[in-house]
Amino acid sequence: MTVPTGPRTSHPLPTAAATLALAVLGVLAVVPAPATAAPAELVVATNGNDSAAGTVAAPLRTIQRAVDLAGPGTRILIRGGTYAPTGNVQITKSGTATAPITVSRYGSERVLLDGEQLPGTPAPVGGSLPNAQRGVLHIEKAGHWTIVGLEIANGPYGVYCRDCHHVVFDRLVTRDNYESGLQIQGASNDNQVLNLDSYGNRDPRKNGESADGLAIKEGSGTGNVVRGARLWNNVDDGFDAWLFTSPIRVENSVAWGNGVNRWGFPDFAGDGNGFKMGGGDPDPPAAHVIRNSIAFANATGGFVDNGNPGALVFDRNTAYRNGGTGFNVSRSKSTVTRNLSVRNKTAVSLGSATGSGNSWNIKSSWGDADLASTDSSVITGPRTPEGAIRSSNFLRPAAGTDLGARI
Fold it and tell me: How many CA atoms lie within 13 Å of 105's alpha carbon, on the beta-carbon side?
């Protein structure tokens, strides 16, 4: 073989076609183009344009467009005003543990997502609601999102989260929806519901059978936590853990006025419990925990196991003036400690549950005179600027006895 000699000559870079051919032959490795970085911030406004850059000066028009453009670490900031979509916001992508995606109101501006124009508002009596249509915000198979400071009303569910994980719901208001205000379902883990206000939710298609303030139900997944929720005047229950088989922790929360037929539904089916800690058909065991929470003036029960046979924990809670039983734990292996039951139709139904330091362990009858205050105006009034429930001596024992909730 003759080997050419002499000086080397330069050669032009291969064309795209030549590069592809060489790559096929294994001669040249093709390096993919770098991925486009996710935008750090996107702004949405009612007067925006979805072809705009998504800045304060040139905002987007729809939340869905911002969600579509977002990636790990993106902050979506929504300017004040009412957004009335004709299709719900679909969140089906994920952030990461170190770079979650955030959807937040802009500063302290009030943002209302009004779902009245969505399908299923309401669905007909006895009708069904397709999965994809559930929720003004519909989150499915997605994780590492933080959603802050939005008001969501008049939707077929306010927020519906199926198979979701590591989602933080912070300082939301979900009201007057045609199903539960916020529902987490399916294989869902490590979600946090913080300082939620959820009220006036109802379900005409079921005559009040299933619209709760907050539902974590029909699924499983560890690490789900509720803190600082207020759940009131919902047609069914304040909180519902129906058929959720993994432990849920509920703390520092209040439920009142649930289960009253304020809408004149025929054949009314609302249950009217403050905190329903499980149940099903058949009833699966789940070791839910509820601490430092208050249930008052609900149509039926304050705190109920609802047939959940698991080892639940009820610690330092207060049930006041509920239409049925303050603490109904008769079908579970619950541990009940330092709870307070006052002026309920029945103070407690224990069954085989165990515990100590509860009001019924101290004396047989408690009344308003045993309480420092029965004025609920502070606990039901405006929250602190940080979103917390304002502290008061509502329903605390007058003598300073160490039992019941401290909120």
Answer: 21
CA 405 to chain centre: 22
Confidence of residue 399 (pLDDT cuts 50, 70, 90): confident
Hey, what domains does the chain have and what are their CATH numbers?
78-370 (2.160.20.10)
User: Look-up: residue for tokens 């909180």?
Assistant: 239
How sure is the predictor about 241, in pLDDT bands with cuts at 50, 70 and 90?
Answer: very high
Q: How far is CA 394 from the centre of its chain?
A: 26
Q: Let me know how long the chain is.
A: 407
pTM of the predicted protein model: 0.91
Q: What is the pLDDT of residues 36-70, one digit of tens each?
A: 789 999 999 999 999 999 999 999 999 999 999 99
Residue-wise pLDDT tens digits, 149-169: 999 999 999 999 999 999 999
Separation of first and last alpha carbons in the chain: 92
Q: How far apart are CA 260 and CA 231, in angstroms?
A: 13
Q: How many Å apart are CA 242 and CA 293, to the nearest integer?
A: 19
Query: In sequence order, what are the residues at sequence separation of 6 or more whose Cβ sits closer than 8 angstroms to the Cβ of residue 97?
Result: 144, 166
Burial 57-71 (b: 16+ CB within 10 A, else e): eebbbbbbbbbeebb
Average pLDDT over residues 62-80: 98
Residue numbers annotated as active site: 276
SS3 24: helix
Using alpha carbons, select from 295, 279, 166, 323 the residue that is nearest to residue 230: 295
Closest by Cα among 188, 189, 191, 232 to 214 = 232
Per-residue pLDDT at 24:
41
Segment 258-277, tens digit of pLDDT: 999 999 999 999 999 999 99
Q: In whole angstroms, what is the distance from residue 294 CA to residue 306 CA?
A: 18
Q: Say how far residue 30 (Cα) sits from the centre of its chain.
A: 46
Place of tokens 């183009």: 33
CB atoms within 10 A of CB 402: 9
Give me Rg for the CA atoms of the chain: 26
How far apart are the C-alpha atoms of 145 and 137, rounded to whole Å? 12
Provide the 8-state DSSP code for 60. B
